[in-house]
């Protein structure tokens, strides 16, 4: 394999129904390099969170990986037995969830939760683990960490709780963190602080991050590369600056145009007509074709794979024949 | 009843809604017996503290602020869902709390509300047609069932849905479509004034764009006045003519939209502007944001923003700043008043 830390190849996730199967993720492929922050952006139901869940092995049955491979370094992790997968979680891959209140145990102190996590993954005694916990809290920017470590989650504000969750995720010194909408439940002013902490911590620890969000602002602030998802497929993937400044896929162009700008005043926002198709009614050909304003005749018949252009990879027939 | 364009008011700049010194306290004391045993006093949470503003006919006034700043409480006060502790709300010159009977019903009809979560604001057991027809029945706006049906279909068409959708239930619609239904329901009472409490924050950006465009079209068509509540400053910039910035229940700055973004005066407004993510990667210069909004049960003394403010001095810690009018804007800040912080294009008076 290449120098990628995480390598996802042709991942297909299916949900069997009584007579049919719903394909929630369809041939998703991407890499994350060590220390890199990859953003996953898209509307609700595009399959962003599902990709994260598939990687860490938390797909809810009856959803399952139907085909494809997931490699973490040299280890293939999509077929691991439960026990090995359990050891992997928290140690090599950690996860940060959207709502910091539900991802912390309300009846245990922060110290209990951090020390338990640290001791599960690292051979430290109680005293050393506690010292490590205080150090982690300090690093994520919790003031007076030594005093606050014995508080319960409800005694922290939303932003502080999300810092604790980040500390918990870092406790096992993972190589990859999957952050699923880590700032969605927070205010803008707190969101900016949390993004800063996440970026700084990953930089210092050399941790790679897969940042799942629907907020283009968060992506532009935090990520190195972005994958834009639409109806279970990657529509476009590339360098964040390219995607923000020169989006190629008509869907990305619409998505970027629909965000109100604070630097310029427009009378009407760009709007993409319609809404994302349901999983049981994905149109043939390119899934975006009914909403696309640059549709070609073949878009309704053939499904485009990722085409390499000089600005990244885009799944759109408009770019066929572009010199890579 | 038909959905014609409502008569324009002779003077468009007349305030339709005037809010004066509005305050709202909530009792958050422990139960009486506990208070007696533990000899604790009653405790109050000041959700809204001496807020004044006015909204002109045909204008969009936005309230912004972090969670806990009292935005939604003000919305509920205006539509009379909760009652103010003091202060008054005048709608079209009449004090809302003092009108009774038919007059109150008419005033109340003219103010409608759109809620944040379209999954919670529509009754899942009612058909969409019945949901939209309810205000028509409640206010007696139609004489026959045929007229009700026609109005409902017209409204559905106006918000971008099909007339036959009135037979469906809310669960058959996506989030954006449900918000369209909520808008149609609000419009069915033929209001002049819509209170929109975070109408797009539960929606995806592309759907948000559709709803914002729709709201603007409807405003032009029906001459509506909006009170638009949001925490998203880029949405607010797109929608609002005037913006009020709330912090811990008090209005810290109230200025025309253009001016607020180009010449923010209050340090909190500046901080909020710095916190907007730069999604265009324009390389806008920003200062890192610090701190969080404190608890409203035990707010800081003096100016409530002083613990997070880099310009705070002893005066700020001790005394609450008064609201001072500069040009077209109102700012409550000692540092601005004493010209300790430069504000572009603003001479202190």
TrEMBL record, chain A:
Gene3D superfamilies with a match to the protein in the record: P-loop containing nucleotide triphosphate hydrolases (3.40.50.300)
A Pfam family per the record: ABC_tran
EC number: 7.4.2.9
Residue stretches making up the ABC transporter domain: 6-256
This protein's GO CC annotations: plasma membrane
Catalytic activity from the UniProt record: a dipeptide(out) + ATP + H2O = a dipeptide(in) + ADP + phosphate + H(+)
SUPFAM superfamilies the record matches: P-loop containing nucleoside triphosphate hydrolases (SSF52540)
Compartment(s) where it occurs, according to its Swiss-Prot or TrEMBL record: Cell inner membrane
Keywords: ATP-binding, Cell membrane, Membrane, Nucleotide-binding, Transport
UniProt record similarity statement: Belongs to the ABC transporter superfamily.
Protein name as annotated: ABC-type dipeptide transporter
Organism: Nitrincola lacisaponensis
Lineage summary: Bacteria, Pseudomonadati, Pseudomonadota, Gammaproteobacteria, Oceanospirillales
From TrEMBL, chain B:
MF-aspect GO terms: ATP binding; ATP hydrolysis activity
PROSITE patterns: ABC_TRANSPORTER_1, ABC_TRANSPORTER_2
Entries under InterPro entries matching the protein: AAA+_ATPase, ABC_transp_ATP-bind, ABC_transporter-like_ATP-bd, ABC_transporter-like_CS, Oligopep_ABC_C, P-loop_NTPase
SUPFAM superfamilies given in the database record: P-loop containing nucleoside triphosphate hydrolases (SSF52540)
Biological process terms in GO annotation: peptide transport; transmembrane transport
Keywords recorded for this protein, A-Z: ATP-binding, Nucleotide-binding, Transport
Domain ABC transporter: 17-273
Family: Belongs to the ABC transporter superfamily.
Record PANTHER family: D,D-DIPEPTIDE TRANSPORT ATP-BINDING PROTEIN DDPF-RELATED (PTHR43776:SF7), TRANSPORT ATP-BINDING PROTEIN (PTHR43776)
Protein name per UniProt: Oligopeptide transport ATP-binding protein OppF
């Amino acid at each position: 394999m290449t120098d990628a830390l995480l390598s996802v190849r042709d991942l297909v996730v299916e949900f069997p129904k009584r007579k049919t199967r719903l394909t929630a993720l369809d041939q998703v492929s991407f890499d994350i390099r060590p220390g890199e922050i990859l953003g996953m952006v898209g509307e609700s139901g595009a399959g962003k969170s599902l990709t994260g869940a598939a990687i860490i092995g938390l797909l809810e049955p009856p959803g399952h990986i139907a085909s494809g491979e997931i490699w973490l370094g040299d280890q293939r992790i999509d077929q691991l037995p439960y026990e090995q997968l359990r050891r992997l979680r928290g140690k090599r891959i950690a996860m940060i969830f959207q709502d910091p209140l539900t991802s912390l145990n309300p009846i245990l102190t922060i110290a209990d939760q951090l020390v338990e996590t640290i001791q599960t993954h690292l051979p430290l005694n109680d005293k050393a683990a506690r010292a490590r916990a205080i150090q982690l809290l300090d690093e994520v920017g919790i003031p007076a960490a030594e005093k606050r470590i014995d508080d319960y989650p409800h005694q922290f504000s939303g932003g502080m709780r999300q810092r604790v969750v980040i500390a918990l995720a870092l406790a096992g010194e993972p190589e990859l963190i999957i952050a699923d909408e880590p700032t969605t439940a927070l205010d803008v002013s707190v969101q900016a602080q949390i993004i800063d902490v996440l970026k700084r911590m990953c930089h210092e620890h050399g941790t790679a991050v897969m940042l799942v969000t629907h907020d283009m602002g968060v992506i532009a602030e935090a990520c190195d590369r972005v994958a834009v998802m639409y109806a279970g497929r990657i529509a476009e993937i590339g360098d964040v600056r390219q995607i923000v400044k020169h989006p190629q896929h008509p869907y990305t162009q619409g998505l970027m145009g629909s965000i109100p700008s604070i630097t310029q005043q427009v009378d009407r926002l760009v709007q993409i007509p319609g809404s994302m198709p349901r999983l049981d009614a994905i149109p043939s050909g390119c899934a975006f074709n009914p909403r696309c304003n640059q549709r070609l005749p073949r878009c309704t018949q053939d499904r485009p794979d990722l085409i390499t252009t000089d600005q990244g990879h885009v799944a759109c027939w408009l770019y066929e024949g572009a010199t890579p | 009843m038909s959905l014609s364009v409502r008569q324009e008011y002779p003077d468009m700049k007349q305030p339709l809604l005037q809010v004066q010194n509005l305050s709202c306290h909530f009792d958050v004391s422990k139960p009486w017996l506990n208070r007696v045993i533990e000899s604790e006093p009653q405790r109050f949470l000041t959700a809204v503290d001496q807020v004044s503003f006015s909204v002109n006919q045909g204008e969009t006034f936005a309230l912004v602020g972090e969670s806990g700043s009292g935005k939604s409480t003000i919305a509920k006060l205006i539509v009379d869902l909760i009652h103010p502790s003091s202060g008054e709300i005048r709608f079209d010159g009449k004090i809302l709390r003092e009108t009774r009977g038919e007059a109150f019903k008419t005033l109340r009809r003219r103010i409608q509300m759109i809620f944040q979560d379209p999954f919670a604001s529509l009754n899942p057991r009612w058909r969409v047609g019945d949901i939209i027809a309810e205000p028509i029945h409640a206010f007696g706006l139609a004489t026959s069932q045929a007229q009700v049906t026609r109005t409902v279909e017209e409204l559905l068409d106006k918000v971008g849905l099909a007339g036959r959708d009135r037979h469906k239930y809310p669960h058959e619609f996506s989030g954006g479509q449900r918000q369209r239904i909520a808008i149609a329901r609000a419009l069915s009472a033929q209001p002049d004034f819509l209170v929109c409490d975070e109408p797009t924050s539960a929606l995806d950006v592309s759907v948000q764009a559709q709803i914002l465009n729709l709201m603007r079209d409807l405003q032009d068509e029906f001459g509506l006045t909006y009170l638009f509540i949001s925490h998203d400053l880029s949405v607010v910039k797109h929608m609002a003519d005037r913006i009020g910035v709330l912090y811990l229940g008090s209005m810290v700055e109230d200025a025309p939209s253009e001016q607020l973004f180009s010449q923010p005066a209050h340090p909190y407004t500046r901080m909020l502007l710095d916190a907007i993510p730069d999604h265009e990667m324009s390389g806008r210069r920003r200062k890192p944001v610090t701190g969080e909004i404190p608890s409203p049960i035990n707010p800081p003394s003096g100016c409530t923003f002083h613990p997070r403010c880099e310009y705070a001095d002893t005066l700020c810690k001790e005394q609450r700043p008064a609201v001072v009018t500069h040009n077209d804007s109102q700012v409550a800040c000692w540092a601005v008043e004493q010209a300790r912080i430069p504000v572009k294009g603003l001479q202190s008076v």
